[in-house]
Amino acid sequence: MYIKKQAPYCTWPKPDLSLPQASRSIQEATETYKERMEIQNLHPRELHREVERSRLLNEINHQVRSTLDLDEVLQSACLLLGETFNCSRVSILVNESEAGDWLITRGEYKTDDYTSQLGSRVPLADNPHLHQLMSQAEPLAVTRFLEFPGLGEETLQLVQGLGIKSMLAIATSYQGKVNGIIGLHQCDREREWSQWEQDLLEGVASQLAIAINQAQLYSATRAAAQRESLLRLITNQIRSTLDLNTVLKTAVRGVRELLNSDRVVIYRFLENWAGEIVVEDLRVPWPPILGGIVADNCFKTDHAELYKQGRVRAIDDIHKAGLNTCHAEFLDKLQVKANLIVPIAMPDHLWGLLIAHECHSTRHWTQGEIELLEQLGHQMAIAISQAELYQKVQDSAAQYQAQAEQLTATIQELKATQQQLIQSEKLSSLGQLVAGVAHEINNANNFVHANLFYVQEYVEALKKAVDIYELAASEIPPEIEELNEEVDLDYIRSDSPNLIGSMQQGSDRIRKIVQNLRNFSRLDEAGAKPVNLSEGLESSLSMLQHRFSPELKIHKHYHAKARVECHPAQINQVFFNLIDNALDAIASNPDTEGELTLSICEPYPNWVSISIKDNGPGISPEIQDQIFNPFFTTKPVGKGTGLGLSLCYQIIVKGHNGKIRCISEGQGTEFIVELPIKMGEEK
Q1: Are the beta carbons of 190 and 166 closer than 8 angstroms?
Q2: For 464-491, what is each residue's pLDDT tens digit?
Q3: Are 376 and 235 in contact (CB under 8 A)?
Q4: Which of 203, 293, 335, 555 is the most buried (most CB within 10 A)?
Q5: How much is the pLDDT for 34?
Q6: CA torsion, points 220, 225, 229, 235, in degrees to nearest 10?
Q7: What is the pLDDT at residue 207?
Q8: Domain Phytochrome chromophore attachment site spans what residues (predicted)?
Q9: What is the Cα–Cα distance from 637 to 84, expressed in whole angstroms?
Q10: Cα–Cα separations (whole angstroms), residue 65 to 13, 72, 102, 174
């Protein structure tokens, strides 16, 4: 007990005893002199211990003064104690539970490969060793720790897992309240703890009790500041953005970090009290549960009413909270051991829940933590209300915008349809006119064509008669000689067959033109019927023959044999428009010898492809997506209506369930029309 009597006073500032300055100086000098004299009279071994004790206390005192970070102080103290006592492990447990039912290991030093205790929670239940420590001021030295009387099964498992054989421990107490435990563990052997070691640990405990108290005060102040900061952050988020997802993510991340919990989620109710996790923030290694539809079949309607009225539920241990088996098993599936639940309630309904999960162990939720989560639940309700209102406004605006765009598109379509009807009516009128003219020409030509045969016979008969009269007559009458001089009867006799042959060719040409006109108009074939598409191409070419330049080269590749079911007059209009555009493109490039290529093939079963290709200047990629739009044209004003290709698109795609596309890369343009052999088939 001599060393204990010589222990120095705590180096923390002491209250002013109001002694005169001179008296204090004399007293300090006297005490210093006495201490020096007493130290000089110590045995060398005792002197070494005294120096070691002073060094250890000074180091710990320095750590306490240099930082308010409890973990730094405790880690340094554990290291110093471990080196001084040469033990297997030093653990410092801190009382952070308001109910005082467990301690958490906040500092640790260990040698070799011994199991770490850092971060683990040590319950006070069935642990008489801790109860005895917390009920006495002096250290408790145990040589055979496993034989300590009354240790429960859970505590024995913990001790065996840590490999503790001997322990020297003491409770740290501040103002009569225990705030921690210092434990020195010997794991490689049983150890007798000396009185000097016990006295030294007692001196350290008085220093650490102050450090733990100051750090806890600082931590509580900082936690309050962090709570205020988090609330301000979320409030600012609500004011600065109406993006609900951003607000909710900010909330769960901040709550989990502030509460140091394993998982924080926002649970939204669906129909029949099923729900989904809409936002989650978690700590590894706990698995995510975000996105899954979670049906809590144990959730009752009366529970919802309680939460709607503001119920907050803090469950420290789901197996000891009186929950029914169904609900406890549901939480077990989520690997939850403790949780804190606050409502997110709207004025007229319960939107969801803000929940903090503790998965690795049970947990006592403090009043500050409960109040924080409750305030955040109110903020979430405000954020969701504002976001939903904003979304309704956005949806209404989008709906009105869509209606306006639909109305504009409808007006544009009506205008295009009107123009196409006018164009179609013009083409129909033109077709009727062409058919009528062709009919009249054909009637007259038929009269001429039918009589040319007889004319040729009559002329031959007359020629034969003249030859006979010429041979029979002894002399030519003067009137005949005079007529011969005027009209050259010999030339008429020799040229008349050529004249009649030319008339025959002209009549045949008229008949062919009339047939092409009738093939193009096809007014007698308004319904769909199988046709040979090459005939339509040829009739369209003949209609545009007057536009052919002498240098134009036309290449034809007709390889398809199948007849296509279609509306012939409409398909001919498409061919006419595409060939007409191709001739325009060729004419706009006079420096190049014009070439027009017409192809028909069968690229797929039951489909026919028609290609009309020119070697004009081509179509720029920027406008290729617009060429089938109504009223779009690149021709000068008065030269084009912008309805030709639009009409082609309507006839092929909507009228015949086909396809039309444009290929133009650099020079030249190719339009490809694809038609099903039977209308209504799809590729």
Answers
A1: yes
A2: 888 787 777 777 778 877 777 777 777 7
A3: no
A4: 203
A5: 45
A6: 90
A7: 82
A8: 243-379
A9: 101
A10: 12, 12, 28, 17
Pairing mode of beta strands 595-601, 553-558: parallel
Both tokens assigned to 519? 């093939």
Compute the distance between CA of residue 414 and CA of residue 406 in angstroms, rounded to an integer.
12
At 599 the pLDDT is 94
Against a cut of 0.70, is the pTM above it?
no
In the chain, the percentage of residues whose pLDDT exceeds 70 is 81
- 3-state SS class at 61: helix
Cis peptide before 550 (omega within 30 of 0): no
| Residue 162 contacts residue 152 (beta carbons within 8 Å) | no
Rounded-to-integer distance, Cα 241 and Cα 53, Å = 60
**Torsion-angle region of residue 466: left (phi > 0), alpha (psi -120 to 50) or beta?**
alpha
- The three-point CA angle 21-26-30 to 5° equals 145
Sign, Cα dihedral of 491, 493, 498, 504? positive
What span, in angstroms and rounded, lies between the C-alpha atoms of 92 and 110? 12
Distance from C-alpha of 603 to C-alpha of 37, rounded to nearest angstrom? 115
Query: Which helix or strand (DSSP H or E) is residue 675 part of?
Result: strand 669-676
With vertex at residue 273, the alpha carbon angle to CA 271 and CA 274, rounded to the nearest 5 degrees, is 80
According to the 3-state scheme, what is the secondary structure of 110-136?
A: ECCCCCCCCCCEEECCCCHHHHHHHHC
- For the record, the structure tokens of 641 come out as 């209506």
Strands 313-315 and 293-295: unpaired
Closest CA to 311 of 338, 275, 273, 340: 340
| Mean predicted confidence (pLDDT) in 115-131 | 88
pLDDT of residue 165: 95
| DSSP track, 182-249 | EEEEE-SS--PPPHHHHHHHHHHHHHHHHHHHHHHHHHHHHHHHHHHHHHHHHHHHHHH---HHHHHH
Helix (H, G, I), strand (E, B) or coil at 386: helix
CA dist., res. 195 & res. 453, Å (int): 151
Tell me what percent of the chain is helix, strand and coil, each rounded to the nearest 5.
Answer: 55, 15, 30
pLDDT at site 46: 67
The residues near 593 (Cβ < 8 Å, ≥ 6 apart) are 551, 553
**Residue 537 and residue 560 in contact, taking contact as beta carbons nearer than 8 Å:** no
Structure-block tokens of residue 95: 């009382």
Give the C-alpha separation, 551 to 594, whole Å: 7
CA 430 to chain centre: 56
Looking at residue 528, what is its pLDDT? 83
Beta strands, E only, 379-489: none
Q: For 149-161, what is each residue's pLDDT tens digit? A: 998 888 898 899 9
Of the candidates 57, 76, 13, the one whose C-alpha atom is nearest the C-alpha of residue 215 is: 76
**Which alpha helices (DSSP H) does 619-667 contain, by range?**
644-649, 656
pLDDT digits (tens, 9 = 90+) for 600-650: 999 888 899 999 999 998 888 888 888 887 766 766 655 555 667 888 888
Residue 596 has what DSSP assignment?
Answer: E
Laid out side by side, the sheet with 313-315 consists of 293-295, 274-282, 263-269, 350-358, 338-345, 313-315
Could you tell me which residues are beta bridge partners of residue 315?
339
Give, in degrees to the nearest 5, the angle at Cα 390 between 389 and 393. 90
- CA triple 110-115-118, angle to 5 deg: 70
Beta strand extents in 227-371 (DSSP E only): 263-269, 274-282, 293-295, 313-315, 338-345, 350-358
Residues 121, 76: Cα–Cα separation, whole Å = 21
Structure tokens at 49: 């211990």
In the sheet that holds 140-142, the strands lie side by side as 121-123, 102-110, 89-94, 177-186, 166-174, 140-142
Q: What is the mean pLDDT of residues 547-569?
A: 88
